[in-house]
């Protein structure tokens, strides 16, 4: 029995975590039967989601989940890639998860505080919700500063994101997926990022930058209506 623990849907997204969306799409691509559960990162071994429970064994981290599916269940989304394409997929994944992800975090928690507070803490009594949100926001700001992205100005962060987005558009080309007709693991990463930029009702410079690139918008819609269709029901 496979159970995937992820963040619950919020802000109109399949999940407000790009990594949770990535893991969900990997499970859909695998065709393996699984159960989706709302997880609690405070109880997760690495303090974050997603995590996969497979017959009592816990696998934390979306990339570790991809590796586990390949080693234990015979599903390798990158099996059809050449060695060079695997290397390119790694570089693109690092761009998404180490550059664009932190630009996304900045756009949410620093640039759009009120909608985020309402989405994640709106059910709490107002004084408590505001206090908890302020505490979490300070923690996020420290993480941004520690990673390095938070040390840049908003304009510099947008410039970094724009450069990365251009690289993604170039890699995507005209194909239905990053490496042609068949999807691979990096498609799950890219879809998770785009889902969390394009879907939430937030007007941010990062969202406008993605919206201005038609290939990315079309790609997101194509996967949302196709591979991810069951996840949006």
TrEMBL record:
GO terms for molecular function: transferase activity. This is Glutathione S-transferase. Keywords: Transferase. Residues 7-77 form the GST N-terminal domain. Pfam families: GST_C_6, GST_N_4. Signal peptide: none annotated. InterPro entries: FAX/IsoI-like, Glutathione-S-Trfase_C_sf, Glutathione_S-Trfase, Glutathione_S-Trfase_N, Metaxin_GST, Mito_Protein_Transport_Metaxin, Thioredoxin-like_fold, Thioredoxin-like_sf. It comes from the Bacteria. The keyword Transferase applies. SUPFAM superfamilies: GST C-terminal domain-like, Thioredoxin-like. PROSITE patterns: GST_NTER. It comes from Rhodovulum bhavnagarense.
């Amino acid at each position: 029995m496979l159970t995937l623990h992820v963040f619950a849907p919020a802000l109109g997204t399949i999940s407000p975590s790009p990594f949770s969306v990535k893991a969900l799409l990997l499970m859909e691509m695998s065709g393996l039967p699984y159960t989706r559960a709302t997880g609690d990162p405070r109880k997760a071994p690495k303090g974050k989601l997603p995590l996969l429970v497979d017959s009592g064994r816990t696998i934390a981290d979306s990339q570790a989940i991809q590796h586990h599916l390949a080693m234990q269940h015979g599903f390798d989304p990158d099996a059809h890639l050449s060695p060079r394409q695997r290397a390119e997929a790694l570089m693109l994944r690092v761009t998404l998860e180490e550059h664009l992800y932190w630009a996304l975090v900045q756009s949410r928690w620093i640039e759009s505080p009120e909608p985020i507070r309402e989405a994640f803490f709106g059910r709490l009594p107002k004084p408590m919700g505001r206090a908890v949100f302020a505490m979490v926001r300070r923690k996020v700001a420290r993480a941004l500063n520690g990673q390095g992205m938070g040390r840049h100005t908003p304009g510099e962060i947008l410039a970094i994101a724009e450069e990365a987005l251009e690289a993604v558009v170039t890699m995507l080309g005209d194909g239905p997926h990053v490496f042609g007709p068949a999807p691979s693991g990096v498609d799950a990463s890219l879809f998770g990022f785009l889902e969390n930029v394009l879907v939430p009702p937030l007007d941010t410079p990062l969202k406008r930058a993605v919206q201005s690139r038609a290939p990315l918008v079309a790609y997101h819609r194509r996967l949302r209506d196709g591979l991810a269709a069951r996840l949006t029901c």
